[in-house]
C-alpha cells in the first residue's frame, strides 16, 4: 500500500505542475504581453482556464494531505524549515484567486480593475517561483534541523542560488505550458502566431534558467548532473523530452494539432521531473550533513498508510470521472462561458 500512496503523491505533484503551472503561466504570459494585446490575452485566458482554474489546486491539496497523514515526519520538517517560502506561496495563491475573481465578476468597472490586474499578474509570478524554491530546497542539502539560530534554520535553508535558479526555471516552465495550452484557444492566425512566439520565448527562458540551475548546483555541491545522467532511465527520459520538444515545434507549424502539442508539452515536463526525482528516490528530503527523509523509511504507521491508500483509490473512482466530465463539458460549450 505504501507504493500506492507514493504513486498518488508523485502524480499529484506532477498534475499540479502541469495544470496549476499552466494556470499560473497565463498570468506570466499576460505580464510579458504588450498593452495593445493584453485584453485579447485576458479574454483567451478566461476561455482556457476560467471554468476549471480553481480545480487545479485540488492536486496541491492532495499532496499536502498525503504528506500530513502518511508522512508526518517529512511534513513537519518541510513545513517548519521552509515555512517562509510556503507562507509566501500560499499568500500568492490566495491573492491570485481573489484578483482573478474580482477583476472578472466585479459589477463596477473602475480603477480597482488596474489593482486586480497587477495583483493577478505579480502573484502569478511569485507563486510558481516559490513553488520551485521549495522543491529545490527539499533536495539541496541546506535544511538543518539542528540549526541554532533563526537565519540558519529558516532562511538559509531556502535562500541560496540553487533554489532561486529553480524558482526562475519553474516560472519559465509555467509560462511555456500556458502559451502552448492557450494556442488552442486562439481564433485567428495572428493570435496563434503571437502565442507561438510567446511559447518560443518561454522555451528559451527555460533553457537559460535550466543552465543556471546546473551551474548553481555545481557551485553548491549538489549532484544534479548525477541524478539526471548517471542512470539509464534518466538519460532516456531526457532524450525523450528533447525528441518530443522537436516534434512539438514541428507540429506547431500545422493547424489542428492542439491536443497533440498539449500532450507533448506535458510529456516533456513529466520526463524532466522523472529524470530529476528517480535517482534519489525514495529520499524526498535531503538535509545537511548527509541526513535524509525517506518516503519508505519515514512513513506513518502501516494501518494509517493502508487507510490512506484505500481513501485515495476510492476517491479517484468518485472524483476523477466528475473532473474529466467538468473539463469535457466546458470544452464542448466553451463559447458559452464568459
UniProtKB/TrEMBL annotation:
Location of this chain's protein in the cell: Cell membrane
Pfam family membership, one: Cyt_bd_oxida_II
Main location: membrane
Topology in the lipid bilayer: Multi-pass membrane protein
Any one GO cellular component localisation term in the record: plasma membrane
Keywords: Cell membrane, Membrane, Transmembrane, Transmembrane helix
Transmembrane segments: 6-32, 53-75, 81-99, 119-139, 159-182, 202-219, 231-252, 259-278, 305-328
Database matches in InterPro entries: Cyt-d_oxidase_su2
GO MF annotation terms: electron transfer activity; oxidoreductase activity, acting on diphenols and related substances as donors, oxygen as acceptor
One biological process term in Gene Ontology: aerobic electron transport chain
Membership in a protein family: Belongs to the cytochrome ubiquinol oxidase subunit 2 family.
Protein known as: Cytochrome d ubiquinol oxidase subunit II
Lineage: Bacteria, Pseudomonadati, Bacteroidota, Chitinophagia, Chitinophagales
